[in-house]
Amino acid sequence: MQHKKAQVTIFIIIAVLIVAVALFSYFFIFRPPAIVIPSEIQPVEAYLVECVSEQVKDATRIAGLQGGYLEMPEFEPGSEQLPFSSQFDFLGIQVPYWFYVSGNNLARERKPSLKDIEKEFADYLKERVEECKFESFILQGYDIEVEGKPDIEVNIRANSIETLVNWPIDINYRDINVRIVEHRVSTKTSFGQLYDTANRIFDSEQEKLFLENYALDVLRLYAPTTDIELSCAPKTWFVSSVRDEVNSALEVNIAAVKVSGTYYELDRKEDEYFEVDVGESIDEQVYFLYFRNMPHVFEVWPSEDNLMEAEPIGTQPGLGILGTLGLCYVPYHFVYDLKFPVLVQVLRNGELFQFPVVVVIDKNSIRNMTAAETQEIVFDLCQHKTQEVTIFTYDENTQPIEAKLGFKCFNQICDLGRTRIEGSKAVLETRIPQCYNGFVVAKADGYVTKKAPSPGIQTFVMNVFMSPEHVLDLEVGGLGSGEHATVTFTSEDYSASVYYPDQKQIILAEGIYNVSVYLFKESSITLESQRVEKCIDVPVGGIGAIFGIMQEQCFELDVPQETYTDVIFGGGFVEFSITESELRGASKVSIIAPSYDVPKNLFDLGDVYGLIDVGEVRVSIK
Asked: 559 and 448 in one domain?
């Protein structure tokens, strides 16, 4: 046993000797001796080193602004539904996304690796090192000759960038002849540390989706999602108002997000909610930016013509006593798609590194798509415009008006451009995709959005007549203190809803309207507890979305026993026609709806609904 141990020891000693001899040979025999640069030549080398170092600093500034890129990657445009190209426009600077959703609904990840950045730095310097001219030294009597093109290697470290420039230079000065082949440049910069921090933040976002979680919390707090309210009045929201509310909340909340580190102090315990752990505490300053005017996607179902509606349960005619149904409450469930960019900025010692990502909420859930696992490719009809079309846009008096045009086919809207006034016409000649049951959509400020069906032939001319909107004062007669009304005008092309007297104006256009009015007053009725099931249709994801395929999504709500004070006591319906000439001379819409005794119990309430079903509303314009 001792003999075997002695043999092992001898082998180890021999191995150590071999390594020692190899190292000695490299450092003292085979390795070329370091060149000692005479003091007279040192200013030339110092100038070249400083010139290269300044170019390295220029590269860090450009790459820091452009997400690590010096050479911009191939540009990929967005689409009407997904307006995110592969580059984010920040104050005129194009910053490549590290994660985004392409125009055909594919998740893309384009984070440059450190090796990619080092290669781009080397290529950048190769093109610029020769700009380091030696004219001032030549004027001082130096004879300087360079040989060939520079070959450059770049090594990015945490707090410096090491650059090796292989570029033979022969320098002659006062009988001193020196040839310098390698020029080593060390540039002090935090670029490597900034990239490392940005990389950790991005990897943490891809793994934890913390930005999506914050966005989902904002959506639940600032937009109607799933809830129930005790009321006999329909609930309505304007999509544009909900969008503005959510965008404003995102702008504030995203800016409050912080990465756990030493660059801030929390004022309140509650602010810990905004802290994000990326694995290590950081010293850099980190900012998350979203502004409400950035391109984004905000879609909600069910909605139509900028209106989200939830109907009360218990108001349907013919339900008799209705007590067993839990009269009267409004359950609602809205499904949202939300996509918006966030710019992440990392700062240290006056240096900046930034990169953008797109945050995705899909059908009220955080995204599950990754660059490796993307959704199905959605066929983009807008890329296949084969039909020639000439479109004219006019008002009701055949006067030309400029309008923004789109073409809607299934679930896609293709941007066509705008009609332009040429003499007595507003015209656009363009192409549209060939689509069965497609619509040309015309929009102009002050006019009702017009949908005109496409004839489906190869070449055609279309005249689109648009009705102007008119803002009118609204008056609902017969209401006393604590009483209010919901008024809804609905036509084939347009609808408007008002909650009176909180809103005392309504926007109308020419048309034939179904007018519905409900009158409410404070009272006291108790609803029994029960469970309610509601179902809505939402778009199917993937390729089904482009063909307008919908799927039913159901949800259940537990309605507790509760007393509410908003009771219907009148209302009715009527069909009402308004012409453009009547609207031009009008300033007010007056409405009178029949009213009844305020219900005291569920039986009285059932009687009131029966009367409302046959009640007729009187509408007049003045």
From this structure: no
